[in-house]
Amino acid sequence: MLRGPVLRRRRLRYSLGDWPIGLEQPFELLVLNPTTVRPQLPLDVSVESRSPELAVSLDPVPKVAPEPGQFVRIRFRAVARAEARGSEIVVRVAHGDRQWIRTLRLDASFDLGTIQVASAGVSRWMHGCSSSFAWRGDHDLYDPSTFQSEFGLRVALGLARRFCVPTTVMLSSRLSLEQADHAEFCRRFGWDRRSAEIPGFIRFLRDEVDTANEQDFPVSSDRPVAAEIGNHMHLHYGTHAAADPGNGWKSHARAGAGTYPWMSRSPASSFEEQRDNMLACAASIRNHVGIETSCFAIPSDFYDADTSRAAEAAGIDVGIDTDSTKFERQFVFPAEHHPEGCARFVELTRMSPRDPVNAPQVAVLKYWVGFARRKRRALVYLAHHHLLMYQGNSCLALTAELLRHVVADSEGDVHVATVTSLGRYWRDVLSERTRCLAVSCGGRVVTASNCGDRNLCGIPVEVEFSGGRRMMRIVDVPAGAEVDVLSQARGPEAGQL
């Protein structure tokens, strides 16, 4: 996969647009080994310019191919030294008889002093990707028989680790972390779901899982596995896990069915009950795992007109399925948005099918990946982490195929991240209402400024010059700072590398 200021990616050729002379552009080549096979042959990487007007500088290249579940990062830089048309860079990666070759074409290089900036802005996802992707799974209760356990998560998160892909686990806390509640639940229905194992499960989450809310591909961590932990309510509505003394042990209970200790008042409105349910989940996860949750997914397709506002009131930044219908998730693919009544809360769309078990279902998901690229959308994929093992391994194998498609077949044009990472990027960079990034231009100057309190990284600024010339520049904009996007092209050392 190649990261860099690419305007258009095709199967073998990438278009870089038009660059001003002297503007140095960085690129990053990521070589990943998602297999279980340890490499035996050396890694051969070359980056060569076919045009003397386009200079390339390659950092030292490792000769050893990555181990399973590992990657190597190879950086190079390119700069146009003189006016030219049709300059090309050839990037080649070889391991044995397997080769990956891409040609980067610079349509033209020009003197910035003879041309003006017509417009500039940001309309793409991080690192210049056309779309983004998040893998979300749900954990409703501790239940080793359905692999909702340490073992089940190790398998699922191990798959994510193989592809260096971030993932988000939406955790319902009452029957996953509260051992006494879990034991009472099991006694009530005569099940032995190993309540005594819950402390070990908590230790696994605390000590072995990198639970950072914002994680981006490729994930690299000192811990064995990584996953964001999201909020899935304390009481999981809509399944047998909803049975609780507060509702008379009613299976599949929903909002309004009972009175619970975590409610701030009773009777309560739907808004108040859902908000308090999310706050109770956040408090339980904070108490047992030591982290703050920032994203939320509805349990068992339960939502109403108050769900989005309740999530925002509970301190959640990003939600999934809080205001979309099943029809929309099957056929419409709603764009990212702020739900009605919310100020900054972001809603992302999870598209069906979920938990694929056959090839046609994966084909539909691949279609949605392509649709997201064309429409510059964020796609959330739902594969319950425990279902990767439950009732066979077809979901595990098909999820692996979808991850391979996203990472490899998309030519690096899909940004993969956790739910929180994608939602916050859209809120701070792409949302017309809440973005804190501003891009301005005038004459030969393009400026990107960040009025927020978070550093913004990998921001793809697209610039159009008079005469129709176009280019992309990827910049980092620290909190409260301003960046001159084209400064190198106007400096005294323009054209040198």
Structure description:
By secondary structure, the chain is α/β, with parallel strands linked by helices. It has helices at residues 150-162, 174-177, 179-189, 198-207, 270-289, 307-313, 326-332, 359-375, 394-409, 419-430, 487-490; strands spanning 2-3, 8-9, 13-20, 25-33, 44-49, 54-58, 70-80, 84-95, 98-110, 117-121, 131-139, 167-171, 209-210, 225-226, 228-231, 295-297, 318-320, 346-350, 378-382, 414-416, 437-442, 445-450, 456-465, 470-477, 482-484. The strands form six sheets. Strands 11, 12, 15, 16, 17, 18, 19 and 20 form an eight-stranded parallel sheet that branches. The chain has a five-stranded mixed sheet with strand order 2-3-9-8-5, with no helix packed on it. Helix 5 (270-289) packs across helix 6 (307-313) and helix 8 packs parallel to helix 9. The longest helix has 20 residues, at 270-289. The radius of gyration is 25 Å and the shape is globular. The two termini are 24 Å apart.
Short descriptors:
2 domains; eight-stranded parallel sheet; alpha/beta; Immunoglobulin-like; globular; 497 residues; TIM Barrel
Do you know the CATH topology of the largest domain? TIM Barrel
Task: Give the overall form.
Answer: globular
Structural class: alpha/beta
In the CATH hierarchy, the architecture of the largest domain is Alpha-Beta Barrel
**Count of DSSP H/I helices:** 11
CATH class of the largest domain: Alpha Beta
Secondary-structure blueprint:
Blueprint: E1 2-3, E2 8-9, E3 13-20, E4 25-33, E5 44-49, E6 54-58, E7 70-80, E8 84-95, E9 98-110, E10 117-121, E11 131-139, H1 150-162, E12 167-171, H2 174-177, H3 179-189, H4 198-207, E13 209-210, E14 225-226, E15 228-231, H5 270-289, E16 295-297, H6 307-313, E17 318-320, H7 326-332, E18 346-350, H8 359-375, E19 378-382, H9 394-409, E20 414-416, H10 419-430, E21 437-442, E22 445-450, E23 456-465, E24 470-477, E25 482-484, H11 487-490
Parallel strand pairs: 3-9, 11-12, 11-19, 11-20, 12-15, 13-14, 16-17, 17-18, 18-19
Antiparallel strand pairs: 1-4, 2-3, 4-7, 5-8, 6-7, 8-9, 10-23, 21-22, 22-25, 23-24
Helix pairs in contact: 5-6, 8-9
